Amino acid sequence: MAIFTNQATLSYNGLTTNSNTVEGELVENLSIDKRALSSDYCTCPITYILSLSNTKETAAENLTVSDDLGGYLYNGTTVYPLRYIDGSARYYVNGTATAVPPLSSEVPLEFTGISIPAGGNVMLIYAAVPTDYAPRDSSTGITNTASVSQEGVVLASSDTTVLAMVGPNLSVIKSINPTQLQPGDMLQYTFLIENSGNVAATAADNLSVSDLFDPKLGNLSVTLNGTPLSLNTGYTYDSATGLFVTVPGVITVPAATYQRDPATGAFVTTTGKAVLQVSGTV
C-alpha cells in the first residue's frame, strides 16, 4: 500500500493560488513475498519460496512470475550468481499441489500463465545453486528480486539477500597406492582434505579423520603434510580392529583464496589443503 498526495495551482492575471492538498491510498490487489530457506550459502543449493496473494473479488490471470537470479553488470555484461536447478519447481494453489506453470526462461528465471483465484493465493517453490559469479567474501552476498507482472507491467516485487557462508567448508578424497598387492606388501592411503570456505579450519574445530582399515595394517607410519605424526599424540590405532583415528585438532586446513577473472568476472577458488598419509603392511 502507498499513500499519495497532490495539489493544484490556479493561475490568473499573473497571480497564482494553490488548492488544498488531497490524499489518497493505492491499495495493492496483488502481493508477493519472497523468502530463502538458507541464511547463507557456499556451494549447496538455496531453496526459495514465493507466496503470492490476490485480494480482488475476481481471479488474477495471465500473470508472469520472474526472478532476476541476482544478475549484475560486469564489464558491460550481465552475469548471474545463481543458476536455477531444472525440475526443482513446485507449485501450490490455495495449498493444493498443482502442475508447475510453463517455464519460459531459465536465465533470468520466468514462469508464465499463472492465475491466482479471487481472494486466493499461490506458492511457487524452486531451488538455485550459486555459480562462479557468486561472491565468496564473508561480507557480501546474493540479492535477487522476484516480481509478478501482467502484460509487461510489474504489479509487485520482493527481494531477499543470502550472505556468503562464514566458516570452513571441508571435503576429503581418499586414494590408495598400489591398487594391487600381496600379503606383506606396503600399502599407502592418502587423504586429501580441502577447504573451499573463507575461514581456516583450526585446532578449535576439532577436525579428525577416522577409517576402519580392512585389511588391517601393521608397522603403521603416519604423516601430515610430510611431517610424521606420533601414536597417541597425533593419532590412535587399534591393530585388533583396524580402527584409525587422528587426534581431534591435530589437522588444520588453511582457508581458500579467491581471485576474480578480469575478463569474465568469474571467481576462481584455490582451496586450502592438508594431506594425511597412512602407510603400513597388509
Multimerization state: single chain
In percent, how helical is the residue content? under 10%
Q: Please, what is the average pLDDT?
A: 93
CATH architecture of the largest domain: Sandwich
CATH class of the largest domain: Mainly Beta
Could you walk me through the main structural features you see in this protein, from its secondary elements to its overall organization?
It contains no helices and 26 strands. It is mainly β and 282 residues long. Strands 3, 5, 9, 10, 11 and 14 form a six-stranded antiparallel β-sheet that branches. Strands 4-16-15-6-13-12 form a six-stranded mixed β-sheet, with no helix packed on it. The protein has a five-stranded antiparallel β-sheet with strand order 17-18-26-20-21, with no helix packed on it. It starts with a strand and ends with a strand.
